[in-house]
Amino acid sequence: MVAEHPYRLRLGRVDVPDDFFRDGVAATVTDDSGTVVLVVSRRAETRNGDGASAAPLAVVTAEGDLDRDTVALLRHALIQALDDGGPVCCDLARVTFFGAAAANLAFHAHARATTAGQQFLLRGATATTRRVLDAVDPSRILQRS
């Protein structure tokens, strides 16, 4: 079951509680006409081959456009997942636009994870998203799968 929380764009602000993003929760960003432009959700995933004692992987999924107007919601979800501890994955398989603000967020999340001794990875990047990542991260600092 997925709980949903819709909200409208508000100049990059996220109007959800600090502890909102738990497993099975999704938040939807709509524009002024009510069209959904981004959905962000979180779930726990068991990592294969890591044994029963391994921490589950927190998977934060984005679906839609990641630009300067919408990236605040993903930032909120990723920071909360990182603050909860354990490895975090950002699933980009359903991202239709990946702008500079999204790339900046990926580096920010990576730095935060590295400082905390956590693993952060990106997965499912489409060809367009990979091109942006390759341009801004030619040394492949960001872990991708």
UniProtKB/TrEMBL annotation:
A Pfam family per the record: STAS_2
Its protein name is STAS domain-containing protein
Which residues belong to any copy of the STAS domain?
A: 57-145
